[in-house]
Design brief:
alpha/beta; OB fold (Dihydrolipoamide Acetyltransferase, E2P); five-stranded parallel sheet; five-stranded mixed barrel; binds iron/sulfur cluster
């Protein structure tokens, strides 16, 4: 099996589950598509660009299939993920040789679906009732290869941010039983994993709708108590739902790393209202102050959408002002991308669309400012000693190992790869735009 994954951590995690489940039927992963008997593309539809990646990938995959058929063999082609959920039958009509199309909720049914697809074309984009939904507990077979791992804590989202397609493609929010989460963390630390990243669309609302279940803060404390857990990260947060109990966890839990991704999307209250984010810039800034009081070295990253329908010059200046006021270490910023079936499309229909050239100019300005802030944050680390979790060889320098600081910075330094999985003190000697260089401190 060859699985190509586009998009977010949730997709990466689902791919791990697909590998684990299909391995039970004898499928082995291969990096080389030409060797595969089953090709799966796990897709993303958060914006138009990632959606287009599917079509270029299918071009490659169909080429492999035709070559295999010419030799008398065959390859099964499958599309999974958010575009499969969003486009489903349309994809099957467009690509006559697609054997299987299945949405995120069907990941746990993949073995049965692949067996059926040997005899007929299969489409499965049904959402599973909350009472019947089962989170797969098989551990990603590649988990041994890294001291870090993702663990999902929920699926779907009940928020209705007007630009977002996730509730359409991943369905309503469902919290995974905390006992199952803790069991998966135990299984991962038993295999040498030291850093756990808890993932969900809106982790802060975890457990709130399940009687007797832990809250997100309580889950953090429970994971921190487990033997072998050295570091805890989580994503994605929602500023409206982040409460004082999570802020307090930054005081109490040294395992909680000093990096937080806290999407703000815009610095303008008018735009935040149109996005239905349900917090104000003032509330966001106050939350940042509370978090920094609890953890002074906290490195913040965020998401920005520019050119959202109706965004005025003054609105954009509010965004630029908030960017400077917080001093984000990094941010992921994009021009607004109209997504099928999302409420924000109505704003376009009534003529509030921001011209593409205006949106592009705003994006360039924001990204230029962010680069300056990011560089300043990197430069400020030179001379400091960072606790680094070693993850493997540096991608670029042979004989140099690589890891991450608590603030989620990549750092390369001379050392033995036998240190993978160890947390070692490293003095930062040089800062670059996206990474650091250092030397191990004896
Ligand atoms: S919180 Fe909003 S942006 Fe995030 S997944 Fe849910 S609807 Fe989308």
């Amino acid at each position: 099996m060859h699985i190509r994954t586009f998009g977010c951590q949730m997709n990466a995690y689902d791919t791990g589950k697909l590998k684990a489940l299909l391995a039970e039927d004898g499928f082995e992963p291969t990096e080389d598509m030409a060797d595969a008997d089953l090709i799966v593309v796990n897709t993303c539809s958060i914006r138009d660009k990632p959606e287009q990646k599917l079509h270029s990938f299918l071009g490659e995959a169909r080429h492999v299939r035709r070559a295999r058929q010419a030799q008398g063999g065959d390859v099964m082609l499958a599309v999974a993920g958010c575009v499969a959920q969003q486009e489903g039958a349309k994809l099957q009509r467009r690509y006559k040789d697609l054997d299987l199309v299945f949405g995120p909720d069907a990941v746990t049914r993949v073995r049965e679906l692949v067996k059926r697809a040997e005899h007929e074309r299969v489409l499965d984009t049904d959402f599973i009732d909350a009472d019947d939904y089962v989170f797969a507990d098989q551990v990603d077979p590649d988990a041994d290869a890294s001291p870090t791992a993702f663990v999902t804590i929920q699926k779907g989202c009940d928020n209705k941010c007007t630009f977002c397609i996730v509730p359409t493609t991943r369905g309503g929010e469902l919290s995974r039983p905390s006992a199952q989460i803790l069991e998966e963390v135990r299984a991962l630390t038993a295999r040498g994993v030291k850093e756990i990243t808890l993932i969900g669309q809106n982790v802060n609302s975890y457990g709130l709708k399940v009687a007797g279940e832990r809250t997100f803060a309580q889950l953090l404390y429970a994971v921190a108590e487990l033997p072998g857990v050295e570091r805890i990260r989580y994503t994605t947060s929602h500023p409206r739902d982040m409460g004082p109990d999570v802020v307090q966890a930054y005081r109490d839990l040294p395992q909680l790393t000093s990096h937080l991704h806290l999407p703000v999307q815009s610095g303008s209250d008018a735009v935040l209202r149109r996005m239905k984010r349900f917090y104000t810039r003032e509330r966001y800034l106050r939350l940042v102050d509370e978090l920094r009081a609890a953890r002074p070295d906290l490195a913040l990253s965020t998401d920005f959408i520019v050119g959202f329908p109706g965004e005025s010059d003054a609105d954009f200046e509010d965004t630029m002002d908030l960017l400077g006021a917080v001093g984000f270490h990094t941010s992921f910023s994009f021009r607004y991308s109209p997504r099928p079936g999302t409420p924000a499309l109505k704003l376009i229909d009534r003529g509030d669309e921001v011209p593409a050239d205006v949106a592009s100019a705003r994006l360039q300005r924001l990204q230029a400012r962010q680069r300056t802030l990011a560089r300043a944050a990197m430069d400020a680390m030179v001379g400091t000693v960072q606790q680094v979790l070693v993850e493997g060889w540096s991608r670029n320098d042979p004989g140099v190992i690589c890891g991450r600081t608590g603030t989620f910075k990549t750092i390369n330094f001379p050392g033995d790869v036998a240190l993978v999985g160890a947390t070692v003190p490293v003095r930062v000697t040089t800062a670059y735009t996206n990474s650091l260089k250092g030397e191990a401190v004896a």
